[in-house]
Amino acid sequence: MGTAHAESGRRGEALLRLTMAEQVATTSIDNPYEKLRALIGAAEVQRESGRLELASRGYEQALGVARNAEYPLGIAHALAGLAGIAALRPGDIQQAHGYAEEAVTLYRSLGADTEAAKPRESLPGPRVDRLLSPPPGSRSGGHHIQRKGR
Q1: 19, 25, 30, 104: least surrounded by Cβ within 10 Å?
Q2: 79-115: per-residue pLDDT in tens?
């Protein structure tokens, strides 16, 4: 319900509902998958509302739940969220890359290639997959490093 309100632009109501969901998740939900979903949903709305510390805490809690449940997809989702938060903090860029790489590795191991591209999208600087792609018009099957101005 909270994510639906967030998508419709009703952030205040979404934040209230997801904050309640986060409280319920940490105290009342026994199913780790439902708990993980509530924590990640709340963290996403917190991030979109500019509450980075609360978002980070939510993703960290989600990561703990996913690791305890040995749920690799949940771990990847939480790591991707942490990468996005760390990327917004100038001093945490290296940490953002670490989270993103770990998430990408997990997504790829699960065959979730579409999801694997997302963690790197929020990172500043050149993306490795862009640098290793063949230049436009290249007939070579190998990878070439693209240089600026070419």
Answers
A1: 30
A2: 999 999 999 988 888 999 999 999 999 999 999 988 9
